[in-house]
Amino acid sequence: MDKYEKLEKVGEGTYGKVYKAMEKASGKLVALKKTRLEMDEEGIPPTALREISLLQMLSHSLYVVRLLCVEHVLQSTDSISPSPAVSPSPKSNLYLVFEYLDTDLKKFIDSHRKGQNPRPLDPSLIQRFMFQLCKGVAHCHSHGVLHRDLKPQNLLLDKDKGILKIADLGLGRAFTVPLKSYTHEIVTLWYRAPEVLLGSTHYSTGVDIWSVGCIFAEMVRRQALFPGDSEFQQLLHIFRLLGTPTEHQWPGVTSLRDWHVYPKWEPQNLARSVPSLSPEGVDLLSQMLKYDPAERISAKSALDHPYFDSLDKSQF
Ligand code: PVB
After folding, report:
1. Considering the entire predicted model, what is its pTM?
2. Is residue 98 classed as helix, strand or coil in its secondary structure?
3. How remote is the CA of residue 34 from the centroid of ligand 1, in Å?
4. What pLDDT, in 10s, does the model give residues 86-100?
5. What are the residue ranges spanned by the domains of the chain?
6. Which residues pair with 103 in a beta bridge?
7. Which of 104, 149, 168, 208 is catalytic?
8. Ligand 1 pocket, 31 CB below 6 A?
9. Which superfamily does 103-151+188-315 belong to?
10. Is 149 a catalytic residue?
11. What is the rounded distance in angstroms from the CA atom of residue 13 to the CA atom of residue 51?
12. β-bridge mates for residue 163, sequence order
Protein backbone atom coordinates (compact mmCIF):
# COMPACT_ATOMS: atom_id res chain seq x y z
CA MET A 1 0.00 0.00 0.00
CA ASP A 2 3.09 2.27 -0.07
CA LYS A 3 2.03 3.28 -3.54
CA TYR A 4 -0.76 5.39 -2.02
CA GLU A 5 -0.88 8.28 0.37
CA LYS A 6 -3.99 8.00 2.48
CA LEU A 7 -5.82 11.31 2.74
CA GLU A 8 -9.09 11.62 4.66
CA LYS A 9 -11.77 9.04 5.39
CA VAL A 10 -14.73 9.53 3.05
CA GLY A 11 -17.15 7.53 5.14
CA GLU A 12 -18.43 4.08 5.88
CA GLY A 13 -20.17 2.11 3.19
CA THR A 14 -22.25 -1.00 3.71
CA TYR A 15 -19.12 -3.15 3.47
CA GLY A 16 -16.26 -1.14 4.89
CA LYS A 17 -14.49 2.16 5.30
CA VAL A 18 -13.67 4.27 2.25
CA TYR A 19 -10.63 6.56 2.14
CA LYS A 20 -9.60 9.23 -0.29
CA ALA A 21 -5.98 8.66 -1.31
CA MET A 22 -3.41 9.72 -3.83
CA GLU A 23 -1.46 7.40 -6.04
CA LYS A 24 2.06 8.74 -5.49
CA ALA A 25 3.43 7.87 -8.93
CA SER A 26 0.72 9.61 -10.92
CA GLY A 27 -0.67 12.13 -8.44
CA LYS A 28 -4.11 10.76 -9.26
CA LEU A 29 -6.86 10.57 -6.65
CA VAL A 30 -8.19 7.13 -5.83
CA ALA A 31 -10.67 5.71 -3.34
CA LEU A 32 -9.49 2.88 -1.10
CA LYS A 33 -12.18 0.56 0.13
CA LYS A 34 -10.88 -1.39 3.07
CA THR A 35 -12.54 -4.68 3.89
CA ARG A 36 -11.47 -6.64 6.89
CA LEU A 37 -11.37 -10.30 5.95
CA GLU A 38 -12.38 -12.79 8.58
CA MET A 39 -9.84 -15.36 7.51
CA ASP A 40 -9.72 -18.83 8.85
CA GLU A 41 -8.14 -21.67 6.92
CA GLU A 42 -10.59 -20.96 4.17
CA GLY A 43 -8.71 -18.00 2.69
CA ILE A 44 -10.44 -15.04 1.05
CA PRO A 45 -14.21 -15.36 1.58
CA PRO A 46 -16.31 -16.15 -1.50
CA THR A 47 -18.38 -12.97 -1.04
CA ALA A 48 -15.24 -10.87 -1.43
CA LEU A 49 -14.02 -12.89 -4.40
CA ARG A 50 -17.45 -12.47 -5.95
CA GLU A 51 -17.44 -8.72 -5.58
CA ILE A 52 -14.00 -8.51 -7.11
CA SER A 53 -14.77 -10.63 -10.12
CA LEU A 54 -18.11 -8.91 -10.73
CA LEU A 55 -16.48 -5.51 -10.47
CA GLN A 56 -13.66 -6.48 -12.78
CA MET A 57 -16.20 -7.75 -15.29
CA LEU A 58 -18.56 -4.76 -15.01
CA SER A 59 -16.19 -1.88 -14.42
CA HIS A 60 -15.50 -1.60 -18.12
CA SER A 61 -18.71 0.39 -18.35
CA LEU A 62 -18.41 4.16 -18.07
CA TYR A 63 -21.41 4.06 -15.71
CA VAL A 64 -20.01 1.61 -13.18
CA VAL A 65 -17.30 2.83 -10.82
CA ARG A 66 -13.91 1.62 -12.05
CA LEU A 67 -11.89 -0.88 -10.03
CA LEU A 68 -8.23 -0.11 -10.63
CA CYS A 69 -6.55 -2.79 -8.57
CA VAL A 70 -6.83 -5.05 -5.56
CA GLU A 71 -4.28 -5.34 -2.74
CA HIS A 72 -4.34 -8.13 -0.18
CA VAL A 73 -2.47 -7.05 2.93
CA LEU A 74 -1.48 -9.55 5.64
CA GLN A 75 -0.42 -7.86 8.85
CA SER A 76 3.05 -8.81 9.97
CA THR A 77 3.17 -11.09 13.04
CA ASP A 78 6.88 -10.32 13.86
CA SER A 79 6.01 -8.34 16.97
CA ILE A 80 3.85 -10.99 18.55
CA SER A 81 5.69 -12.48 21.52
CA PRO A 82 5.93 -14.83 23.18
CA SER A 83 5.04 -17.23 20.39
CA PRO A 84 1.70 -18.84 21.17
CA ALA A 85 1.47 -22.60 20.88
CA VAL A 86 -0.99 -22.27 18.01
CA SER A 87 -0.29 -19.36 15.67
CA PRO A 88 -3.30 -17.03 15.37
CA SER A 89 -4.56 -16.24 11.88
CA PRO A 90 -2.90 -12.98 10.89
CA LYS A 91 -5.12 -9.93 10.34
CA SER A 92 -6.00 -9.77 6.71
CA ASN A 93 -7.22 -6.69 4.86
CA LEU A 94 -8.39 -6.39 1.32
CA TYR A 95 -8.00 -2.99 -0.28
CA LEU A 96 -10.06 -2.35 -3.37
CA VAL A 97 -8.61 0.60 -5.25
CA PHE A 98 -11.19 2.54 -7.23
CA GLU A 99 -11.25 5.73 -9.21
CA TYR A 100 -12.28 8.57 -6.91
CA LEU A 101 -15.53 10.45 -7.39
CA ASP A 102 -16.25 13.65 -5.56
CA THR A 103 -19.68 13.01 -4.10
CA ASP A 104 -22.72 10.75 -4.08
CA LEU A 105 -26.31 11.40 -5.15
CA LYS A 106 -27.55 11.42 -1.55
CA LYS A 107 -25.29 14.35 -0.61
CA PHE A 108 -26.09 16.05 -3.90
CA ILE A 109 -29.86 15.86 -3.32
CA ASP A 110 -29.39 16.99 0.31
CA SER A 111 -27.39 20.01 -0.85
CA HIS A 112 -30.31 21.02 -3.08
CA ARG A 113 -32.86 20.52 -0.30
CA LYS A 114 -31.24 22.37 2.58
CA GLY A 115 -28.50 24.88 3.35
CA GLN A 116 -28.46 28.52 2.25
CA ASN A 117 -29.42 27.74 -1.34
CA PRO A 118 -32.22 25.16 -1.60
CA ARG A 119 -33.29 24.72 -5.21
CA PRO A 120 -34.74 22.01 -7.47
CA LEU A 121 -32.34 19.83 -9.44
CA ASP A 122 -32.14 21.03 -13.03
CA PRO A 123 -34.58 18.85 -15.06
CA SER A 124 -31.96 18.37 -17.77
CA LEU A 125 -29.48 17.14 -15.12
CA ILE A 126 -32.07 14.69 -13.77
CA GLN A 127 -32.54 13.48 -17.34
CA ARG A 128 -28.75 13.04 -17.79
CA PHE A 129 -28.39 11.19 -14.49
CA MET A 130 -31.36 8.95 -15.29
CA PHE A 131 -29.96 8.07 -18.71
CA GLN A 132 -26.58 7.13 -17.23
CA LEU A 133 -28.24 5.18 -14.42
CA CYS A 134 -30.32 3.20 -16.92
CA LYS A 135 -27.19 2.60 -19.04
CA GLY A 136 -25.27 1.31 -16.03
CA VAL A 137 -28.14 -0.91 -14.89
CA ALA A 138 -28.66 -2.23 -18.44
CA HIS A 139 -24.96 -3.08 -18.54
CA CYS A 140 -25.16 -5.04 -15.25
CA HIS A 141 -28.33 -6.85 -16.34
CA SER A 142 -26.83 -7.77 -19.71
CA HIS A 143 -24.09 -9.58 -17.73
CA GLY A 144 -26.66 -11.36 -15.59
CA VAL A 145 -25.88 -9.30 -12.49
CA LEU A 146 -28.50 -7.73 -10.24
CA HIS A 147 -27.36 -4.87 -8.04
CA ARG A 148 -30.13 -5.41 -5.46
CA ASP A 149 -29.32 -2.36 -3.35
CA LEU A 150 -29.48 0.65 -5.64
CA LYS A 151 -29.93 3.86 -3.64
CA PRO A 152 -28.69 7.46 -3.87
CA GLN A 153 -25.69 6.70 -1.63
CA ASN A 154 -24.53 4.04 -4.09
CA LEU A 155 -24.58 6.43 -7.02
CA LEU A 156 -21.37 8.40 -7.25
CA LEU A 157 -21.12 11.68 -9.11
CA ASP A 158 -18.53 13.69 -10.93
CA LYS A 159 -20.33 17.01 -10.41
CA ASP A 160 -18.24 19.03 -12.86
CA LYS A 161 -18.71 16.60 -15.73
CA GLY A 162 -22.28 15.61 -14.80
CA ILE A 163 -21.31 11.93 -14.72
CA LEU A 164 -23.08 9.31 -12.60
CA LYS A 165 -21.64 5.88 -11.81
CA ILE A 166 -23.02 2.88 -9.96
CA ALA A 167 -21.04 1.64 -6.94
CA ASP A 168 -21.29 -1.06 -4.27
CA LEU A 169 -22.01 -4.06 -6.42
CA GLY A 170 -21.01 -6.30 -3.52
CA LEU A 171 -24.46 -7.68 -2.93
CA GLY A 172 -24.86 -8.86 -6.48
CA ARG A 173 -25.53 -12.48 -5.74
CA ALA A 174 -25.29 -12.87 -2.00
CA PHE A 175 -28.34 -14.54 -0.53
CA THR A 176 -29.88 -11.89 1.66
CA VAL A 177 -29.47 -8.18 2.13
CA PRO A 178 -28.47 -7.69 5.78
CA LEU A 179 -30.84 -5.64 7.94
CA LYS A 180 -27.86 -3.91 9.50
CA SER A 181 -24.59 -3.10 7.78
CA TYR A 182 -21.32 -4.34 9.24
CA THR A 183 -21.21 -1.15 11.36
CA HIS A 184 -24.79 -1.76 12.59
CA GLU A 185 -25.99 1.15 10.53
CA ILE A 186 -29.65 0.61 9.64
CA VAL A 187 -30.08 -0.51 6.05
CA THR A 188 -32.57 1.61 4.13
CA LEU A 189 -35.73 -0.05 2.80
CA TRP A 190 -36.92 2.95 0.77
CA TYR A 191 -35.80 1.57 -2.58
CA ARG A 192 -36.79 -2.04 -2.02
CA ALA A 193 -39.22 -3.62 -4.50
CA PRO A 194 -42.58 -4.90 -3.21
CA GLU A 195 -41.84 -8.50 -4.27
CA VAL A 196 -38.72 -8.47 -2.06
CA LEU A 197 -40.68 -6.92 0.84
CA LEU A 198 -43.33 -9.62 0.38
CA GLY A 199 -40.77 -12.40 0.66
CA SER A 200 -40.38 -13.47 -2.97
CA THR A 201 -37.13 -15.35 -3.41
CA HIS A 202 -37.14 -15.73 -7.18
CA TYR A 203 -36.91 -12.10 -8.05
CA SER A 204 -35.16 -10.66 -11.05
CA THR A 205 -34.02 -7.50 -12.85
CA GLY A 206 -37.29 -5.80 -11.89
CA VAL A 207 -35.98 -5.23 -8.35
CA ASP A 208 -33.34 -2.83 -9.69
CA ILE A 209 -35.84 -1.06 -11.96
CA TRP A 210 -38.09 -0.43 -8.95
CA SER A 211 -35.13 1.16 -7.14
CA VAL A 212 -34.33 3.28 -10.22
CA GLY A 213 -37.95 4.52 -10.23
CA CYS A 214 -37.74 5.48 -6.54
CA ILE A 215 -34.45 7.31 -7.18
CA PHE A 216 -35.96 9.12 -10.20
CA ALA A 217 -38.88 10.38 -8.08
CA GLU A 218 -36.51 11.40 -5.30
CA MET A 219 -34.36 13.54 -7.61
CA VAL A 220 -37.52 15.36 -8.73
CA ARG A 221 -39.00 15.73 -5.22
CA ARG A 222 -35.72 16.08 -3.26
CA GLN A 223 -37.49 13.82 -0.82
CA ALA A 224 -37.89 10.06 -0.76
CA LEU A 225 -41.03 8.71 -2.43
CA PHE A 226 -41.54 5.81 0.03
CA PRO A 227 -39.69 6.56 3.30
CA GLY A 228 -40.68 3.48 5.34
CA ASP A 229 -38.97 2.64 8.63
CA SER A 230 -39.88 -1.04 8.75
CA GLU A 231 -40.71 -3.63 6.10
CA PHE A 232 -44.39 -3.34 6.97
CA GLN A 233 -44.43 0.48 6.91
CA GLN A 234 -42.51 0.35 3.64
CA LEU A 235 -45.28 -1.71 2.03
CA LEU A 236 -47.97 0.60 3.42
CA HIS A 237 -46.21 3.64 1.90
CA ILE A 238 -46.22 1.91 -1.48
CA PHE A 239 -49.83 0.69 -1.20
CA ARG A 240 -51.15 4.11 -0.15
CA LEU A 241 -49.76 5.72 -3.30
CA LEU A 242 -50.08 2.97 -5.90
CA GLY A 243 -53.14 1.26 -4.41
CA THR A 244 -53.19 -2.08 -2.63
CA PRO A 245 -52.17 -4.62 -5.29
CA THR A 246 -54.75 -7.12 -6.52
CA GLU A 247 -54.40 -10.54 -8.16
CA HIS A 248 -55.71 -8.87 -11.32
CA GLN A 249 -52.85 -6.32 -11.43
CA TRP A 250 -50.25 -8.69 -10.12
CA PRO A 251 -50.98 -12.40 -10.58
CA GLY A 252 -49.61 -14.44 -7.69
CA VAL A 253 -49.21 -11.56 -5.24
CA THR A 254 -51.50 -13.04 -2.58
CA SER A 255 -49.48 -16.29 -2.63
CA LEU A 256 -46.18 -14.60 -1.75
CA ARG A 257 -44.68 -15.74 1.56
CA ASP A 258 -45.28 -12.57 3.54
CA TRP A 259 -48.61 -11.50 2.04
CA HIS A 260 -51.25 -10.55 4.60
CA VAL A 261 -54.60 -8.85 4.44
CA TYR A 262 -54.03 -5.12 4.07
CA PRO A 263 -56.36 -2.15 3.97
CA LYS A 264 -57.66 -1.72 0.40
CA TRP A 265 -56.35 1.61 -0.86
CA GLU A 266 -57.22 3.02 -4.29
CA PRO A 267 -54.32 4.09 -6.55
CA GLN A 268 -53.52 7.81 -6.35
CA ASN A 269 -52.42 9.95 -9.27
CA LEU A 270 -48.64 9.45 -9.48
CA ALA A 271 -48.17 12.81 -11.24
CA ARG A 272 -49.22 14.60 -8.04
CA SER A 273 -46.27 13.08 -6.19
CA VAL A 274 -43.81 14.51 -8.74
CA PRO A 275 -45.47 17.84 -9.65
CA SER A 276 -42.53 19.28 -11.59
CA LEU A 277 -41.97 16.19 -13.77
CA SER A 278 -42.96 16.30 -17.48
CA PRO A 279 -45.74 13.95 -18.68
CA GLU A 280 -43.10 11.78 -20.44
CA GLY A 281 -41.18 11.56 -17.18
CA VAL A 282 -44.32 10.54 -15.28
CA ASP A 283 -45.01 7.87 -17.91
CA LEU A 284 -41.50 6.41 -17.58
CA LEU A 285 -41.77 6.51 -13.79
CA SER A 286 -45.11 4.70 -13.88
CA GLN A 287 -43.57 1.97 -16.04
CA MET A 288 -40.76 1.53 -13.50
CA LEU A 289 -43.17 1.29 -10.58
CA LYS A 290 -45.50 -1.39 -11.97
CA TYR A 291 -46.50 -3.93 -9.33
CA ASP A 292 -46.06 -6.97 -11.55
CA PRO A 293 -42.27 -7.25 -11.96
CA ALA A 294 -42.82 -8.79 -15.40
CA GLU A 295 -44.59 -5.60 -16.53
CA ARG A 296 -41.84 -3.24 -15.40
CA ILE A 297 -39.88 -1.60 -18.19
CA SER A 298 -36.36 -3.00 -18.70
CA ALA A 299 -33.33 -0.76 -18.31
CA LYS A 300 -32.55 -1.21 -21.99
CA SER A 301 -36.07 -0.21 -23.14
CA ALA A 302 -36.05 2.73 -20.75
CA LEU A 303 -33.19 4.20 -22.79
CA ASP A 304 -35.57 4.42 -25.78
CA HIS A 305 -38.43 5.98 -23.80
CA PRO A 306 -39.74 9.36 -25.09
CA TYR A 307 -38.58 10.95 -21.80
CA PHE A 308 -35.06 10.81 -23.25
CA ASP A 309 -36.01 12.14 -26.72
CA SER A 310 -34.82 15.66 -25.87
CA LEU A 311 -31.44 14.40 -24.59
CA ASP A 312 -28.35 14.62 -26.78
CA LYS A 313 -27.41 10.94 -26.51
CA SER A 314 -24.27 11.23 -28.66
CA GLN A 315 -22.23 12.29 -25.61
CA PHE A 316 -22.92 9.00 -23.76
N1 PVB B 1 -17.60 7.59 -1.90
C2 PVB B 1 -15.42 3.73 -4.55
N3 PVB B 1 -15.57 5.20 -4.41
C4 PVB B 1 -16.31 5.84 -3.47
N5 PVB B 1 -17.11 5.36 -2.51
C6 PVB B 1 -17.74 6.26 -1.75
C7 PVB B 1 -16.79 8.09 -2.86
C8 PVB B 1 -16.13 7.19 -3.70
N9 PVB B 1 -15.30 7.36 -4.76
C10 PVB B 1 -14.97 6.13 -5.19
N11 PVB B 1 -16.63 9.42 -3.05
C12 PVB B 1 -17.16 10.43 -2.27
C13 PVB B 1 -16.39 11.54 -2.03
C14 PVB B 1 -16.84 12.61 -1.25
C15 PVB B 1 -18.09 12.53 -0.71
C16 PVB B 1 -18.88 11.41 -0.92
CL17 PVB B 1 -20.43 11.32 -0.22
C18 PVB B 1 -18.41 10.36 -1.70
C19 PVB B 1 -18.64 13.66 0.10
O20 PVB B 1 -18.35 13.71 1.30
O21 PVB B 1 -19.36 14.50 -0.45
N22 PVB B 1 -18.56 5.80 -0.78
C23 PVB B 1 -19.35 6.70 0.04
C24 PVB B 1 -19.61 6.04 1.37
C25 PVB B 1 -18.32 5.65 2.02
C26 PVB B 1 -20.38 7.01 2.25
C27 PVB B 1 -20.62 7.04 -0.72
O28 PVB B 1 -21.32 5.87 -1.06
C29 PVB B 1 -14.89 3.11 -3.27
C30 PVB B 1 -16.69 3.06 -4.98
Report:
1. 0.93
2. strand
3. 13
4. 666 677 888 999 999
5. 4-99, 103-151+188-315
6. 157
7. 149
8. yes
9. Transferase(Phosphotransferase) domain 1 (1.10.510.10)
10. yes
11. 14
12. 158
